[in-house]
Amino acid sequence: MEREKEFIPVSLYDYELPERLIAKYPVTPRDHSRLMVLDRKSQTITHDRFYNLPKYLKKGDLLVLNDTKVIPARLLGHKPTGGRVEVLLNRKLPEKNRWHALVGGKKIKPGLEIEIASDLKAVIVKQVEGPLFEVELLSPDGDVMEKIYRYGKIPIPPYLERDEEPIDRERYQTVFARKEGSVAAPTASLHFTERVFEELRKKGVDIAYITLHVGLGTFKPIKVENVLDHKVDPEYVEVSKEVVERIKETKERGGRVVAVGTTVVRALETAGYKPFKGFTDLYIKPGHRFAVVDAMITNFHLPKSSLLVLVSTFAGREFILRAYKEAVDKGYRFYSYGDAMLIL
Fold this sequence. Notes:
This protein has seven helices and 17 strands. The protein is of the alpha/beta class and 344 residues long.
């Protein structure tokens, strides 16, 4: 007889958040955001500032960060008829200058040419599903990436309810961003500064980088009743042989692997102890056994989101919701530009 499927209602991952606690702009300087420290063993909560992160890490720990770079993926254009269209690049495809993109506008069909500028157009190749299309970007001189930077806007999260401003070009990007391809920032890494890295190095904390290009699916709410039925969108990941070796060395010497952000957690748990290059749709939900990650740094996530499910799976749902309630009571700043949490 088939075992009845477990049912975990999405309502268990809900919490009350006053609108005023959604951070519309980043804190200056970066490392002055607040840091809530959760200890899973003692179930205690400590309040600090991000610049004090090094005091919670030990010599021999390995800090793993995501070196992806956010591109200005919001392209505004118009159809031959003059109708306005927004093309929001979501994922780079293997074919040259081809992307999956969300296209907003009426009567979007294959073959439609959208003019972004006199030297950049987007051609609809085919519909993938709903408002998601495969598009090809064309430029007479062939330098499409340069045009994306010239005409595109940084795709700041929808809940900021504002347009891109000059500050976002700098601050919705990590100080170590290297590999172009994300359309959303790995936000737990936004708090790092050279000063924090210097203190970590002095302490003997090892630092490594993986790549996960963040797609718009990161903002996708869980729309199903059963948390276990949710699916996450595939995202491109690279975990090198060198990083895998350093993870093994860290474990052998009794150090901890500290993942910075849910993107790094998903990349490392996908790879396990082997190098990995390809797409991951790993959804970390109740029942997941963590093979690699010992501690994580993360921001405060949206209610009923796969990211809140991930951190709850790591630290325990009741402990996380207690911490979130305390964060609300103490006026922490939430979401992408908000404060940070370290889970030990």
